[in-house]
Here is the input.
Amino acid sequence: MSNKRHMGLRASAHISNTLIYIVLVVMSVVWLIPFICIVLQSFRVESTWQVGYVIPQKWGWDNYVALWNSDFKRWYLNTFITALATAVGQTVFVLCMSYTLSRFRFKMRQGLMRFMLVLGMFPNMLAMIVLYRVLKDLGLTQANAVPGLILVYIASSGMGYYVSKGFFDTIPKSLDEAARVDGATRAQVLWKIILPLAKPIVIYTILTAFMAPWGDFVLARYISFGTSAGMNVAVGMYSWLQQDMIGQRYTMFCAGGVVVAIPVTILFMCLQKYYVEGVTGGAVKG
Amino acid sequence: MKTYNDLEYLRLSKGQKFLYRLVSFFAAIPVALKNGCLGIGRFFKNLAAAIGRELADIVLTFKNGDWKTRLSFLIMGFGSMARGQVLRGLLFLLFEAVFIFYMIMGGGHWLSLLSSLGRIGPHDEYSAVLDAYTKVYGDNSFKILLYGVLTIFFIIALVYTWRLNIKQNKIAEDILRSGKKLRSGKEDLKSMVDDQFHKTLLALPLTGIILFTVMPIIFMVLVAFTNYDGSHDGYNNALFTWVGLKNFRTMLTWSGSGVNYSATFGEILTWTLIWAFFATFTNYFLGMFVAMMINKKGIYLKKLWRTVLVLTIAIPQFISLLYVSKMFAKNGIVNGLLLDLGWITQAIDFMGSQANNALLPRVMVILINIWVGIPYLMLITTGILMNIPADLYESSRIDGANAWQQYTKITLPYMLFITGPYLLTSFTNNINNFNVIYLLTGGAPTNAAASGAAGSVGYTDLLITWLFKITMGAESQYYMASVIGILVFLVVAIISLVVYNVLPSIKNEEDFQ
Amino acid sequence: MKKILALVLALALALSLVACGGSKPAEETNSGSELAGTYDITVWCADAIVELTKQQIAAFNESNEDGITFNATVEAVGEGDAATQMITDVEAGGDLFCFAQDQFARLVQAGALNKLGVQASETVSAANDAGVVAAASINGELYAYPLTSDNGYFMYYDKSVIPEEDLDSLEKLVADCEAAGKYFSMETDTSAWYIASFFFGTGCESTWETDADGKFVSVKDTFNSPEGLIAVKGMKHLVDSPMYLSSSDGAGFDSGCAIVVTGTWAYETVAGILGDNLGATDLPSFEVDGQSYHMGSFNGCKLMGVKPQTDAAKSAALHKLAQYLTGEQGQMERFNAVAWGPSNLVDQANEAVQANPALAALLQQNQYSVPQGQIHGSWWDIAKVIGTDVENATDEAGLQAALDNYQAAISALFNMSEEQLNAWSVIGALCGTNWDTDFPMTETAEGTFQSEVLELKAGDELKCRQGASWDVNFPADNVVVEADGNYIVQLVVSGDSGEVTLIAQ
Here is the structure.
């Protein structure tokens, strides 16, 4: 009797596992299809506009060659520089902010956190117009949009302290206190004790900061308007899908997408572990 | 309404508890409002008292202080320098010098024009010799407003620093009088990396936030009280000026004809909330479901499944979403495939560039958002799921619970408790989810009735994309965009307030450490 | 110590303030009458003509007799996007920029277009076709240079599917497509531009008025009329066909289309696909209740604008360049390079231009076309909904409802209630305003309207007007105030005349 029951359980587990595999395979296909399509279309040579089929009739590197001969190189370099600088600056800002709010208890602390929470509720879309004007007076728009964008990205990044503050909260305070007793200054505590422990969150912050500029087209478009030399990949490629260009540039867009996605994806895949720790921690702390 | 004591409350079922909290929240609103008003009253009373105290202190400092202190009232930092604290004194002095320089170089000019936002507009001049018009520019309302606001910031900073400078003198006098020594510049520097380290750390990030977040927000809020738009851009065509509450009246007047700002706002707000609800909860439950499937014992290749899903996070949204939107276009791959298979005879307009077909595009953006969102939720929930103590499941199995009961009695409550705050932020983020809507449909299909009266409006437009279109669209009505921005803020703030008060799992922050 | 930190913070703030605020716009005062010199300029034009424009500017530098040298940066900015980009910041926009005509009013309103000089206006008006000149003018003054005159649509067809004798009848063409299992493609679902074709065919119009600043003030629109109903009936026949496709994509011939209604820009694509089977001709006629109506179209153009300048010499030099680029030779070069249809009358008569199948078809269609004047930006969004409304209609009442919806949305554009339209106000040079502010009047007795008490100065001038527009205003000549004082302005209207008196308080 008990044996039979056991068998039944196993059989049902078997069936449910099979079902799960089917679901997972279907999902994987759905999730991968767009990317497979982008790659395939980027090798299509026979026409440059949108078509209703996936497999190219003629294969070739034409779109990548065209990409190389266009302003895309410039945009790519712009974005890469922006991403690098932002990754460094933003990480410094975020760590300063989150470490302070996690470790120090000072008079305005609660008020400051509440203030930033309220600030975050304003739609930031409108700030664009003001930021443009300020950057323009500093000479950091259009052709000089890259330093301008870096400045904007970094300057307001302190608001995004939440995830890493959650992480610092989990590092026991007793470590700090022990070091302080041994005569270390606060700065030494941060540098010598906390930072080595905070490697995952540092990497998470660098990774998210590095990835963001690749996708920004609203602010970047506004700041670099009408000047190809100051554009990033998102702005430049967005214009390729507009009504008057899509007929000639659709397959180039696909090729560009592949070229943009490859380094970001590889980097992401390598550092995935830290990313997961970051988002999980962030969600738990909310 | 009935009030429960603790014991009675604990006996209630889950649903009743939630209802109770909800009802008591709203029941408490009048009292809270009253307290709030009283609080504001108290605040001003306290503020007045504090200012009085400060003033008295300033006067006393002057009266009792030595000549060094007294001179510091005019020359900031003089006292510090005279007493050997050169570094501090120099910084004070430098600040004063910069302030005076700024006010002379332009600050005073901007400030004086702030009340009118400029007097002289631009005009054309014709040169018969050259047969060409040139433009003679006048004031620039935008700059006047922007730098006027900045100047006010600066003045507040000066008053604060001046007050510090005076306090500093008093403290120094007190210390010297008691026979102790003042801190040297070197000691000051050292304290910056030690007991005052938090201020060093916060200095740059906070400056950045004030200049690049707070200041723009204040500016844009002020714009709601002006007539700044495409035909009054303040420089190139006409100046703009203050109009008081006119724009709020335009937005909030309900004329009932169905084609005005208030009706359009209501319509878009409704869809925005529906969208935020579905976008948040479909992702949440499906993501959790996927995570549970992958985590299940006996499923192999866990890492592979996760990696496939996580790809969507790695690839910039402007590529993946723009591409997906083109896939579903009328001449895109999906339609091509369906036509080839003979499943349909006419291309389906998934993304609704076709007008008045609101439902399909709305469903499509929610579905595609699931595609975007599941991977995040899968990552988040995976970690949490693994933290649920395994013996909970073990003992429930012994009690004879089936999988569904385990889910509803253990997994879900645990998840909701842990991720409650995340759900809230996720909801408010979805209210402002610009990328998904803008890249997928651009707000299409067009809502023609509303478009006449309230800028270009579509059926999938969220408040945030509507705001964007009003800013960038044909009329460039910045003032209306600003009003909408303020209203969006209110919506988000109210929702957050209600949820914070009703949700059980807003934990005490210190508990975590 | 706290103080030191606060100081550092405040200093950082201060420094950035100085950096931002210190730069007041520097007045340039170069007003020499000599144009010779080197100018750094930015030119915005479509991707396709960037290279050509660079060559043309180089040629201008070589050939001009004024000693002008331009150091030009040519940027690819789409003509459909130019206005949005310009309005971001006119000051930093392109000195010369190309744009599609539908953005003209918006650009004038934004102060982004520099008027043409008197002589330049005369030359340009004489050299280009009248419809295009009208599209570039407001109140008879030219604000931009005509660049092309080819923004219209007509019909491409596949000669192997469509017999030539059917080309005149929409009904026959639809039947041919259905028989061949091929699509008839016309973008009536999503584009008001194409929808208008049917309405123009039956003689409907939508004519918009702007004031001198480019702001729209009124519209004469007859889409909701018996003729309009005929138009939507004709359209209904097309969209009800199973082989109807709403698209204007020339690539459609690659995926099952036999007919595509689109414009000259699709020529290369279509020719690449159809080869010798390419046919292009004017739109057909449709039949309603036994009567035939030839489908109309919009006839539009692209323009080149000069950004307002503070330096007179640069302004004049830029106008010289714009005139060169859009002149007879410039347009011809553009036709040769990218087949853009010229607006220049001499070029239009050129043999090569006339031999281009797409331009020839456009020319054929032009006899039925309506010049696309100034149209309110929101009209496109409002009118395009007619397309789907018609598709979803099941009976004549449904078709009528489509037109009613359209009209309701159009009237909402000006946001004027009946009450506002009838309201009287005082306007003039008074109380510190300069003919830009209406002071409301209230009706005190039948036909008698009074203002609030106004503080007037001697020499102030004023008028009374209705509905904040100049359609009805009194008296014919401005009232001139004779002595300082507080007055109530009183208006007595009887029939077509009105009398304005000032009542001293």
Summary: Chain C touches chain B through 84 residues (CB under 8 Å). Chain C has a mean pLDDT of 85. The CA atoms of residues 281 and 361 of chain C lie 4 Å apart.
